[in-house]
Amino acid sequence: MNALKERIVDLIEALGPISVAEYFSLCLSDPTHGYYMTRDPFGRDGDFTTAPEISQMFGEAVGVWLVLAWRALGRPARPVIAEIGPGRGTLARDIVRTLDKLEPDLRLAARFTLVETSPKLTAVQAKTLEGAGGRFDWARSVDELPDGPLFIVGNELFDAIPMRQYVKTGGAWRERMIGLDGQDRLFFVAGAGSFDPSLLPPDAGAAGEGTIFEAAPVRTALMQKIAERIADRGGAGLFIDYGHLSSGFGDTLQAVRKHRPEDVLENPGEADLTSHVDFSALAETARAAGLDAHLTTQGQFLLGLGLLERAGRLGANATEAKREEIRAAVERLAGPDQMGDLFKVLAILPRGVSVPPFDG
Fold first, then answer.
1. Mean of the per-residue pLDDT values for the chain?
2. By C-alpha distance, which of 50, 5, 69 is closest to 236?
3. What's the total number of domains in the chain?
4. Nearest partner of 227 among 115, 116, 350, 139, judged by Cα
5. pLDDT tens, 29-50?
6. Is 138 part of any domain?
7. Which residues are 148's β-sheet partners?
8. With contact defined as beta carbons under 8 Å apart, do 109 and 79 qualify?
9. Does residue 268 contact residue 9 with C-beta atoms inside 8 Å?
10. Residue by residue, what is the 3-state secondary structure of 156-220?
11. Could you give the CA distance from residue 360 to residue 345 in angstroms, rounded to a whole number?
């Protein structure tokens, strides 16, 4: 039993079962033993690989979109370009390089800020961005970002923010909790207390016994904060994650370690813990703040911004081995049976502003 698991067991013994959201938060963000606080989990030598680590073409497409959004908004002065949950800094580096080529004026005018809470990852990001040129600042929250029009990107951000689970049992809905069995092993249990029924979807009453529903009020609160900032001061947001375009039922809580699925209760703090993102809920939150919200799949987004054309240019003078690597990256990023359909894209913009590929 690792140190964080011992702490969780002690907590449950003292106070009773904890919510899935509390367990999720402890696993990822505990200051001493939390997953993101203690390691660099990305890439082949880590536990999972994100799209920016697969190919530069992903970050280049995001950079193109930011350029198009900035132009569509009338080229506002002193924009803030921020990435929230920036991983190793690979996406930020590719965005900056793309801006250097396509829109040097934006590159020079923008204030680049990375929103990160992990000291470990902040150091990794700083190392990645060495030599990228210009100044990069760090903030711990959206509230700390500089004033001005905000152009913000989040890739695989919302899946790592805690959500709550509810289970239908005995004809009633209860919050799903984590307790201890007779041998001090963690297991899922239906909570005894009540909760806000407004978190459930309208058709919750018709759900069958054992059905699980996930709600993520913390994700909603973050989207609301970002959307209100953009509605007030201008800008745009782009968020890419795996999830679903419409709300539904089901258990999507999962753990990954060394690129393999793992029992979510087995090694807290040592495996990445995530769940699928409800993009429709995030889109409605942005619309409620007065913005337009556009949804598509990652594949459609990348193809609409010229992924195939960019792959062709990269492969034109490359070796056959390199061309095969590029083809494989295109398939992984945009193939419908890989990340192309599983990952979704949400763009939030001031009302009436049109930015490709969401303007067709």
1. 92
2. 69
3. 1
4. 350
5. 888 888 877 766 665 666 668 9
6. yes
7. none
8. yes
9. no
10. CCHHHCCCEEEEEECCEEEEEEEEECCCCCEEEEECCCCCCHHHCCHHHHHCCCCCEEEECHHHH
11. 15
Q: Is residue 173 part of a domain?
A: no
Which residue, chain included where needed, has tokens 């999830």?
Answer: 243
Q: What are the distances in angstroms from CA 181 to CA 11, 178, 185, 187, 345?
A: 14, 10, 5, 7, 41
- pLDDT tens-place string over residues 301-351: 999 999 999 999 999 989 999 999 999 999 999 999 999 999 999 999 999
SS3 267: coil
Q: Which of 86, 223, 218, 82 is nearest to 161 (CA)?
A: 218
Res. 72: pLDDT tops 90: yes
Res 334: pLDDT: 97
State which amino acid sits at residue 16.
G
Domain assignment present for residue 250? The answer is: yes
State the amino acid at position 180 in one-letter form.
L
Residue 296's Cβ-side half-sphere holds a number of Cα atoms within 13 Å equal to: 18
Domain assignment present for residue 319? The answer is yes
Query: Which CATH number does the domain housing residue 147 bear?
Result: 3.40.50.12710
In the chain, alpha helices (H): 3-15, 20-29, 35-38, 51-54, 56-72, 90-102, 104-109, 119-128, 217-233, 279-288, 298-304, 307-315, 320-334, 339-342
pTM tops 0.85, yes or no: yes
Which region, left, alpha or beta, applies to residue 147 given φ > 0 means left and ψ of -120 to 50 means alpha? Answer: beta
Query: What is the C-alpha separation between 308 and 312, in angstroms, rounded?
Result: 6
* Residue 157: domain span: 35-162+215-350
